[in-house]
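Field log, afternoon session.

UNIT: design team B
ACTIVITY: writing a sequence onto a fixed backbone
BACKBONE:
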């Protein structure tokens, strides 16, 4: 995302947080059933729910983590930080 200064020049806008997009995305794809990506993002309650869902469904619903990983990796860093780190959107 870029902003335009008073002279009309484009300046990059930096976020104050480092994006965890790639780490969370890869962990969600590889270990989605364990909810590790939720813990990385600071969603402890959602991570525990993800583990319970996987155990109760015998792993069938671990596809949720895989889908979340794809969603995380298709977003830009700015969009990811705003949605999942700043606004704390826990699911999808």
């Amino acid at each position: 995302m870029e902003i335009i200064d008073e002279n009309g020049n484009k300046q990059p806008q930096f976020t104050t947080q480092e994006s965890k997009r790639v780490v969370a995305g890869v962990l969600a794809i590889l270990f989605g059933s364990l909810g590790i990506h939720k813990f990385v993002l600071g969603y402890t309650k959602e991570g525990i729910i993800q583990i319970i869902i996987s155990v109760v469904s015998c792993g069938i619903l671990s596809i949720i983590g895989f889908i979340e990983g794809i969603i995380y990796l298709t977003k830009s860093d700015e969009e990811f930080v705003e949605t999942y780190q700043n606004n704390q959107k826990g699911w999808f």
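LOG NOTE: The CA atoms of residues 27 and 36 lie 7 Å apart.
NEXT ACTIVITY: expression trials, pending approval
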